[in-house]
What we know:
The chain is an alpha/beta fold. It has 16 helices and 17 strands. The chain has helices spanning 13-31, 52-58, 62-65, 77-91, 99-107, 153-210, 217-247, 260-278, 297-313, 347-350, 373-383, 443-453, 467-477, 493-502, 520-529, 541-555; strands at 37-42, 47-50, 112-119, 125-136, 142-151, 255-259, 281-283, 292-296, 321-328, 333-340, 387-393, 397-405, 434-439, 459-464, 481-484, 511-515, 533-536. α6 packs across α12 (443-453), α8 packs parallel to α9 and α9 packs antiparallel against α11 (373-383). The termini are far apart.
Amino acid sequence: MPHTANMPVKLSASDAAEALLKTGALQDAIFNSVNFSSIATDEKGVIQIFNVGAERMLGYTAAEVVNTITPADISDPQELIARAEALSATVGTSITPGFQALVFKASRGIEDIYELTYIRKDGSRQPASVSVTALRDDLGAIIGYLLIGTDNTARRLVETERQRLDHVLQEKNVELERANLAKSDFLSSMSHELRSPLNAILGFAQLMKIDRGAITPSQSARVDHILHAGWYLLELINGILDLAQIESGKLQLSREPVSLAEVMIECQTLVEPERQTRGIHMTFPHFDVPCFVDADRVRLKQVIINLLSNALKYNRPDGGTVVVSYTTSTAGHVRISIADTGAGLPPEKLAQLFQSFNRLGQETGNEKGTGIGLVVSKQLVELMGGLIGVESVVDKGSVFWIELNAAAPAADFSQSDGVLSPALSQAVSGAPVRTLLYVEDNPANLALVEQLLGLRADLQLLSARDGTEGVRRSREAQPEVILLDINLPGLSGFDVLAILRADPATAHIPVVALSANAMPRDIKRGLDAGFLRYLTKPIKVDELMDALDEALEIAATAQPRA
């Protein structure tokens, strides 16, 4: 009758004998293998079997170690101590740093595979991976232990090399980080050093233009040249800084749902003076429904203004046109197009269009340019997850476009009527005179602000030449507004702000930063520190007056803390 899977199989005497022979052969194969060491001990740890693999790996003969030593005697003593301490902490009992530490888990019936270092007969070190098993009799009593080890030398070498390469990589990363930091510090320093003299040049030139009665028409034309050259130099500085930050990966973007209609209105206002000067007809789209894109608002304006400025500069003078439009796609993209009626570009120049400092042969033309505006624009658009491109026909004109991801309207959005209200910064007749304290160590900058505030009958200027004097005058005079430089002798502008905020007598006073430290990280640090506004030099008169109006409005309702 055939047997089933659940019925025991009875072997014949010949089958049993053959099975025993096979088992014996298997054991012989294991104990005579040269590929791994097999060390068997008695219950006290004394070596009883030391196979040829162990002899080959450790340099001892079986006769030298059997009935003589334990595996602990040929193991790294420091590793035994460390293993004993770790096990003692785990199980809450003291374990001797000897053979007991090697077999403790196995003696509890726990599978144990660990790494240790054997000390070979010649004193050299042999890393090994060891599996330990307790050997038991029919009643379950431990009669010995079996330690099977494999050579870990190759793996250790690979691990050591990996660690070495990791260390080298870390050192290289540290060097790169230091280089990037040094580059950022250099750019920040150069920006400050260049902006400081520009502040005086552009500031006083703006004053001269405002006070038209004090200069002749020919002098006014010369001032226009100064302003044009000064703003162009500032544009060049900003472009190089932007490009350097992008290339070093330091440029931080703040992406959010941005109203395209609002951005278009702001850009139109900013380029309107140039449009009028050049006699170009420009049209912008009308937004019947809100349109939002996923972008950094400031950087999106920077890109659009750069494209608009190029469309005006390289257009036909007195009669050219610029058409701004937008389209949406079912794929969730918004394309903004800026078409001009300029000379257009041949294919060979289109291929060079987004190369740094390449002005495509316009270097000798009448139009000034840096050759990096389009490069920065391309990088910014791509950082915002978009695309930029151009289509051009010689003698017909060009169409530059950017494509961004559409976004849902912001939660607090309300539809604008499409008309911008200009900021008012003129004093109301009969308004009370209020005090502004300007903390500045540069005499030229101080004189410039003094003359600018001379245009306002509602403001009285106090000054301080360093941070310590600024704190003292703030407490004594209780000005409505404080205008504060960052780089001051002694206390920095940040130190002064911290002291003013910590003092109940001055904590309520709005503080506006005015600094030549104009890197994005400087501006972010200033706003995070608590400045109401962070204005950068060179001073833009309208921007300064707008910030002062905002600060005075806040000051009208602010009260000192008791």
